[in-house]
Amino acid sequence: MLDRYLPFIEKLPDSRELKKEDLLTPDFLIEKEKNLEMYYSPHNDYINKQAAIIIVGITPGWTQTKTAYETFGRLHKKKLPLDKIMKETKKAASFSGTMRANLITMLDECKLNHALGTSSTSSLFAENRSTLHTTSMIKYPVFYKGKNYTGHQPKLANSDLLSSYSYHLFAKEIRTLPSSSLIIPLGKRVEAVIAELKQQGKITQVCLQGFPHPSGANGHRITQFNKNKNSLLETVANWEKSGG
Question: How many domains, the chain?
């Protein structure tokens, strides 16, 4: 994918912040289906095949996309090796701000930090980054009527485009990762697809079911977490015992 889009990336302005009219253009359009548009972004092409923890969102949003392009462009100008550029772009575009803080708080309450032998799961985004793989069920950014796709409309199963990525390409990616990894799905729709894939035998990793989406916009996050906390603790403890 990168070979196809690199010539267009190299033409992007570097003297200002990138805008939607720079990136959500025909040059970067992968595919269109009715009111859905999928665009390329250079961060999810990097896969950490040694990861012990896999955090899965539904699809990159605009903020992640913008960050990915700006990071890639800056490092590409420095003529760094391509694999390093992809790795650093991935790190920069991963969950940040309030979402990351909420994610770390909940993972620590699940005792994942103890299972990993660290004082806090914040280390996954710093010194222990080699332990983490972040990805999206739909690998590239999808927009519905110009806004971030959230999994609501249309439903994944009702779209050939979204189904091909979530039920096939996503499963293929996860199969390249260690079977001993722990999958942390962000949101009920991501969790539901992973449950289907596990039932079909297409992926084998343990999944932390019932984990709330860490977005600040999820007003039920704390209630949902407290409701499921015991089962979340049990899943993490069993994963640790199994040698995860």
Answer: 1
Three-state secondary structure string covering the chain: CHHHHHHHHCCCCCCCCCCHHHHCCCCCEEEEECCEEEECCCCCCCCCCCCCEEEEECCCCHHHHHHHHHHHHHHHHCCCCHHHHHHHHHHHHCCCHHHHHHHHHHHHHCCHHHHHCCCCHHHHHCCCHHHEEEEECCCCCEEECCEECCCCCCCHHHCHHHHHHHHHHHHHHHCCCCCCCEEEECCHHHHHHHHHHHHCCCCCCEECCCCCCCCCCCCCHHHHHHHHHHHHHHHHHHHHHCCC
CATH number at residue 165: 3.40.470
Segment 8-61, tens digit of pLDDT: 999 999 899 999 999 999 999 999 999 999 999 999 888 999 999 999 999 999
Whether the full predicted model's pTM is greater than 0.85, yes or no, is yes
Q: Is residue 19 part of a domain?
A: no
The 10s digit of each residue's pLDDT in 164-174 is 999 999 999 99
The answer to the question of residue 221 being in a domain is: yes
